[in-house]
């Protein structure tokens, strides 16, 4: 486990701020850079433009071109450069502009970034964070709305996490940067600037460790487990279900690898039912692993099979069809109905 996150510079940010996820990430990156001059941000258009989603807005202006680097359009080069920087004692934070662009860098991530610590018997650490805006819902073209997180969770040596709210965005990015292992940090891009999620963030105290899931709404009838953009969908579904007298518990995984399923097991032993929700396709996925593990650990507590509400096992569709592809409130509630009617 990484050392505790260094606190932001005194007076750098107010103790409490009302933030969107996008602004929280920006301030989290800023706090990490103020706390450690070895933190370097690199990626396509992260400097002068501030990133296509403006998550790195203002960082190059305040920290200079030596610490916030605009790179060529070459994901393999971005990751490879970050590996070299990490070996030399830096803590690079790479931005992959869209999740569908990560695959040219897949070889560097899987063959070098994930393996170097193990290959050197612990002598070389690679504290690299790869920020990945992911998921659909923004009306984008091909390669801009995918959910490839399961691919990276399958690779030993990588940590994989995803935030779903401003507080986690602010603190998890700092905790990821402070981690001595490589971390893939999946960010729900359609929630970056969602005003409905804007909330007070305590910038003085982290709410908990990085690799831990959390119950975000308590319930008694059925458990919903999700991560990233699907957490909001589940919370909305739980709110709608409550109007009909049904109590749904919602768990935000937060960590995809390693999976922290202890709160899920505890919840399922009480509710007897589980629905796993994700935008990713269902086959060979995070939801597959959750279903297998819950069946293994909670078999005698289950009142129904573990069910899933996910994206379909097809390539991501054109933007006109994405509302039919993404698991929404209605699909989640329909799946809950199936579980309750078993």
UniProtKB/TrEMBL annotation:
Organism of this sequence: Amycolatopsis thermoflava
Superkingdom of origin: Bacteria
Record's keyword annotation contains RNA-binding: no
Classification via InterPro entries: THDP-binding, Transketo_C/PFOR_II, Transketolase-like_Pyr-bd, Transketolase_C
Any coiled-coil regions, as ranges: none
Cofactor: thiamine diphosphate
Record protein name field: Pyruvate dehydrogenase E1 component beta subunit
UniProt domain Transketolase-like pyrimidine-binding: residue ranges: 19-194
Keyword annotations of the record: Oxidoreductase, Pyruvate, Thiamine pyrophosphate
GO molecular function, one term: oxidoreductase activity
Pfam families per record: Transket_pyr, Transketolase_C
Transport as UniProt keyword: no
């Amino acid at each position: 486990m990484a050392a505790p996150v260094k606190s932001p510079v005194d007076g750098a940010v107010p103790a409490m701020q009302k933030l969107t996820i996008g602004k929280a990430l920006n301030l989290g990156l800023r706090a990490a850079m103020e706390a450690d001059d070895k933190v370097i941000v690199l990626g396509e258009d992260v400097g002068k433009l501030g990133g296509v989603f403006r998550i790195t807005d203002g960082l190059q202006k305040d920290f200079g071109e030596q610490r916030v680097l605009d790179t060529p359009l070459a994901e393999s080069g971005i990751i490879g450069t970050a590996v070299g920087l990490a070996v030399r004692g830096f803590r690079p934070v790479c931005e992959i502009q869209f999740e569908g662009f990560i695959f040219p860098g897949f070889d560097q991530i899987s063959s070098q970034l994930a393996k170097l610590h193990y290959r050197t018997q612990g002598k070389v650490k690679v504290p690299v964070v790869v920020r990945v805006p992911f998921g659909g819902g923004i009306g984008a073209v091909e390669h801009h709305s995918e959910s490839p997180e399961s691919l990276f969770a399958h690779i030993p040596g990588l940590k994989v996490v995803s935030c779903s709210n401003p507080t986690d965005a602010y603190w998890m990015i700092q905790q990821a940067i402070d981690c001595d292992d490589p971390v893939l940090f999946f960010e729900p891009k359609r929630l970056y600037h969602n005003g409905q999620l804007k909330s007070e963030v305590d910038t003085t105290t982290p709410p908990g460790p990085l690799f831990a899931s959390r119950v975000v709404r308590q319930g008694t009838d059925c458990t919903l487990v999700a991560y990233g953009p699907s957490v909001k969908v589940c919370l909305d579904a739980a709110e709608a279900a409550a109007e009909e007298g049904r109590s749904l518990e919602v768990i935000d995984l937060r960590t995809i690898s390693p999976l922290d399923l202890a709160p899920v097991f505890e919840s399922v032993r009480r509710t007897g039912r589980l629905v796993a929700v994700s935008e990713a396709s269902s086959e060979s996925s995070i939801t597959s692993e959750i279903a297998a593990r819950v069946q293994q650990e909670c078999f005698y507590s289950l009142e129904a099979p573990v069910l899933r509400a996910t994206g379909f096992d097809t390539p991501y569709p054109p933007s006109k069809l994405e509302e039919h592809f993404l698991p929404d409130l209605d699909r989640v509630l329909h799946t809950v109905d199936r579980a309750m009617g078993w």
